[in-house]
Amino acid sequence: MKKQLVFLLLTFFSFLQIRVIAQVTTPLVDNIKTLQAKVNGAWGEPPVLLFGGSNWLEVSFDDLQHNFVRYEYNIIHCNADWTESDLIQNEYMNGFNGQRIEDYEVSMNTMMDYNHYKFTIPNNEVQLKLSGNYRIDIINDDNDDELVAQVFFSVLEPRVSVSIKVSGNTDIDTWNSHQQLDFSVNYQGYRVQTPAEDFYPVIMQNHRWDNRVSGVKPSYLRNGELVYTHNKSLIFEGGNEYRRFEILDEYVPTMRVFKMSYNAPYYHATLFDDAQRYRYLFDKDQDGRYWIRNGKNVRNETESDYFYTHFKLVIPPIAGGDVYLNGDLTYGLLTEDNKMVYNPIDQCYEIVKPLKQGSYNYQYLFVYDGETTGQSLQAEGSFHETENEYWVYVYHRPFGERYDKLVGFQKYTYVINN
Predict the structure, then answer these.
(1) How far apart are CA 263 and CA 108, in angstroms?
(2) pTM score, whole prediction
(3) ω into 265 cis (within 30 of 0)
(4) Domain ranges, ordered by start, for the chain
(5) Residues 201-235 as b or e (16 or more Cβ within 10 Å = b)
(6) What is the CATH number of domain 26-156?
(7) Burial call 17-47: b when 16+ CB within 10 Å, e when fewer
C-alpha cells in the first residue's frame, strides 16, 4: 500500500503544473516609473541576450523626484528558478558591481518633472562571462543603498533547438476557450547524462509571470529529442486580444480616450468605459506591451509627459476574488497597487494610474481569493482563436557545475491559421 501511495504521489507531482513566484522587472519605490529593458534597444524583444554575441541590454527609467540622484547597479547571477546562484562575482562577470549610472537627462516641457536614466549591459566596465539568468539591482546611493528597482534578463548559450506547436484542440476542450502547447527539445550533439531529468523547461504566455509553467517532464524520448505533448500543465486560457489606447496629446483625445483634462498640477486622461466581453474580438495587439511616444514623436524619452489615466470596467461585482489591471503598464503584477476598486454607484471597477505618453495594451484579470494566477474569462472572455505569444526557455546544469545554463530558447506566436 505504501509503495502504491508513493507511486501515485510521484505520478501526480510529475504532471503538476508548477508555478513560480514572479521575478518581475519592476520599480520598488513610487518615484521610479517606466522601467524598461530592451535588447539592442529594440522594442518588444524578449529579454534574452546571445552569449558571446555583440548584442546588449538597454535599461532605462524615470525618477519623478527630478533632482539628481546617484544611482548604482549590481548584477547577480541566478539559477533557473531565479534564486541567487552560488557563484561569486568574478566567476560570472568581468568588472565590479556598484557601477554608477552616469547617463541621465532632465525632462523638458512637461507638467510632471522627472529625470530619465539609462545604461547598457555589457559596457566598458562590466562584461558577462556565463549564460543563465541575471538580476540587476538598482540602488540609491544617496539613501543608504535603498533598493529602488530590479531588472531580470537571461543570457542564451544555444546548445539545443526548441520546436513549438500550439493548438486550440486541447485535452480539456475542442476549439473552445483554451490553447495547448506542445514542444520538443533536440539535444543531438550536446552531451547530457540523463536528458529526461537534467533539462528544466520554463514556459510563458505573453511574457506573463502569474501563469508561468516550469519543471514539466517529457512525455517520451526519441532519437536525441525530448517530446512534451498532451501535458495538461501546458494548457492555457486563450483569453482575448488585449485592449488598446493611446495617450499622445495633452489636449486632444486620441485612440480610446474619452476626455483629456487638466487638474492642477497634472493632466488626466479618461478612457472610454470598458465592458465585459462575451465574444472573440480580433485586433492587432502587441500582447500587453507599451511604446513610449508623444504626439510629435520628438525626444520621446524626455519630452513625453505623464497623464493620470482613468480606467473603468462596467460589470457587476464578481464574488470570491478581485479584478486587476494587467499588462506591461503594471509590469504584470497582480498586487494591491494594481487591484481595482468597485464603485457601487456607477457599478464598475475603477483604477487610476500615472502613465507616460504612449501607446498601451492592457487587460483585466480576475484572481480568486487565496490564488495568485489571473483568469481572463470573467472580464475578457477566453477563446481559442486569440493570438498569443509563447516563450520556451530550456535550462541545464551539467554534472559538476554550480549554475544553470540557458541552453535553449524559442519564441512562438500562435495565430489561428498556423
Answers:
(1) 20
(2) 0.92
(3) yes
(4) 26-156, 158-238+386-414, 243-380
(5) bbbbbbbbbbbbbbbbebeeeeeebbbbeebebbb
(6) 2.60.40
(7) bebeebbbbbbeeeebbbbbbbbeeeeeebb
Three-state DSSP class for residue 411:
strand
Whole-angstrom Cα distance, residue 308 to residue 266?
7
What secondary structure does DSSP assign to 323-335, as a single string? EEEESGGGTT--S
C-alpha atoms less than 13 angstroms from C-alpha of 385 in its C-beta half-sphere: 8
The closest of 71, 68, 49, 70 to 58, measured between CA atoms, is 49
Cell numbers found for residue 379: 472580464
Q: Which pLDDT tens digit goes with each residue over 330-355? A: 999 999 999 999 999 999 999 999 99
Q: CA-to-CA distance for 387 and 282, rounded, in angstroms?
A: 9
Domains 26-156 and 158-238+386-414 share a fold: yes
Q: Is the pLDDT of residue 264 over 90?
A: yes
pLDDT digits (tens, 9 = 90+) for 153-172: 999 999 999 999 999 999 99
Written as one letter, the residue type at 275 is: A
> Residue 94: how many CB atoms within 10 A of its CB?
12
Beta-bridge partner residues of 324: 339, 365
Q: How far apart are CA 212 and CA 23, in angstroms?
A: 11
CA–CA separation, 303 vs 357, rounded Å? 9
CA 58 – CA 123 distance, rounded (Å): 10
Mean pLDDT of 381-398: 97
**In 264-387, where do the E strands start and end?**
266-271, 274-275, 290-292, 306-314, 321-326, 341-343, 348-356, 358-368
Q: What are phi and psi of 281, to 5 degrees?
A: -120, 110
Whole-angstrom distance, CA of residue 16 vs CA of residue 98: 41
| Rounded Cα distance, 251 and 262, in Å | 9
Looking at the DSSP bridge assignments, the partners of residue 115 are 63, 106
CATH of 158-238+386-414, one of 2.60.40, 3.40.1000, 3.30.1460, 3.90.79: 2.60.40
The conformation of residue 264, written as its DSSP 8-state character, comes to T
d(Cα 77, Cα 90) in Å, to the nearest integer? Answer: 11
